[in-house]
Amino acid sequence: MFTWLHKLGSPPVLYRFAERAAPWCKWTAFALLAAGLVGGLILAPPDYQQGDGFRIIYIHVPSAIMSLFVFAYMAVASAVGLIWRLRMAHAVTAAAAPLGAAFTLLALITGSLWGKPMWGTFWVWDARLTSELILFFIYLGYMAVANAFPDQRTGDRAGAILALVGAIDVPIVHYSVQWWTTLHQGATLKLSGSNMPGSMLWPLLVMMVAFMFYFGWLLMIRLRAEILRREKRASWVMRLAAD
Amino acid sequence: MLKELLKRELLIAWRRPGEALTPVAFFLVTSMLFPLGLSPSAHLLRPLAPGIIWIVAFLAGMLGLQRLFRADYDDGTLEQLLLSPRPLTLIILVKAVGHWLVTGLPVVIGGGVVAAMLFVPPRYIVTVVAGLLLGTPVLTMLGTMVAALTVSLRQAAVLGPVLILPLVTPVLIFGAHSTTLAMQGQSPAQAFEALAAMFILSVSLLPAAAAVALRISHEG
Fold first, then answer.
1. Inside any domain, residue A235
2. Is the pLDDT of residue B168 over 70?
3. B213 touches chain A (CB under 8 A)
4. Each residue's pLDDT tens digit, A119-138
5. Long-range pairs of B182-188 with CB within 8 A, sequence gap ≥ 24
6. Distance (Å, whole) CA A89 – CA A240
7. Is residue A219 part of a domain?
8. Do A176 and B145 touch (CB under 8 A)?
């Protein structure tokens, strides 16, 4: 197991791993997306309060979860990269960051689209919306730092520090924003989380797993591009390009 | 050696008072703009005062951050500090304390003055000052970490606020609302506890992160 992990630290091995893993992630993601969308958009009954409007939950909640998951994932990869000095761990972080930012943006956009019919406004300073917005800015900050240095390795490690500090900060931001909104107003809208009927719940769970694989697929594609960009002078890339 | 370092930091600030006093001057001038821009009436300004004070204090805190390592980086002092047998974490903590004494403390005191001018009732001015006393060091510590990270960068001054401000939003929330709660007749204890927790967390963890950051950005 560890020797296998160790080998993944080598750019050509990781490149080929990403190449082989991508189709698996892709087809699993598409199959689960299809199942989740059919379940969520057709089979699930309309909500007794929100009618069909609630169905955006099948995109919104998985993106919101992914926005946090990707950040945690980046923090773990950053720690691995800093502690064991694995350059490829930093490549993984760099490849994941724009995806995480995109999921955050998707969660924000779907959230405000959902808010318009339900709350009557595109934007409210709700705890979750606000902390998602702050998370989005933290993603932007990470990308700005990681790309600001002329030297790739310095940028990688500087970004890794920021990702780790951010990972400690994000829960603090989340809870402080929650405290702040309960100070201002009661929770604007509570999803009937625990008593959600099974016919509505299973598509949501399927969509969450589907988003996970979708992220995996995009990550593999971006990772390959990232490795090629970083290793453009390596002989194995030259040979690959010659083929 | 750490005592000498602190003395050196304060001496440098003393010799160039203009540079050291810029943040507090910015703080006072910008606070003055709010009554001019919004309204001079007490019943409008009073509820907004805590938020105004904290936001402007944060922006003032962004100003001097380049001072922290830049000059030492340019003249090679930083290399001597990196080579010193003392733990870099402690050295950075001392530098941060010096920086806070020079730029943070005047803003804390100025915060009391501005609070009075924005019609915060006199007995709540202590709350403002106490909150700033706990909150501004967190800002300084995060700023030190980011300044260490970006010391070799030309665009550091632009990058700094974009990196720091999202991370310090919790301090703003608890800081500004500690006073708001007190002014509404509620107990600000909860907010102060949160501020104290963030103070301890940042003073204990961030110097170490800044030390790693400084080594990284200096190598590059």
1. no
2. yes
3. yes
4. 778 887 877 888 899 999 99
5. B182/B124, B182/B127, B183/B46, B183/B47, B183/B50, B183/B120, B183/B121, B183/B124, B188/B127, B188/B131
6. 22
7. yes
8. no
Whether A209 is in a domain gets the answer: yes
Q: Is A143 on the interface with B (CB under 8 A)?
A: no
Structural domain harbouring A160: 56-189+197-230
Question: What is the ipTM metric for this complex?
Answer: 0.89
Sign of the Cα torsion B105, B110, B112, B118 reads negative
Domains: count for chain A: 1
Give dist(CA A160, CA A145) in Å, integer: 10
Q: In this predicted structure, what is the pLDDT of residue A186?
A: 47
Kindly give the interhelix angle for A198-230 and A87-119, rounded to the nearest 10 degrees. Answer: 140
pTM of the model as a whole: 0.90
Instruction: Indicate yes or no: CB of B220 within 8 angstroms of CB of A153.
Output: yes
Considering CB atoms only, which of B165, B177, B217 is closest to A183?
Answer: B177
Nearest Cα residue to A148 out of B134, B111, B125, B151: B151
Instruction: Enter the tokens of residue A136.
Output: 């989005």
Kindly state whether B145 is in contact with chain A, defined as any CB-CB distance less than 8 angstroms. Answer: yes
B185 interface with A at CB cutoff 8 Å: no
Q: Is residue A48 part of a domain?
A: no
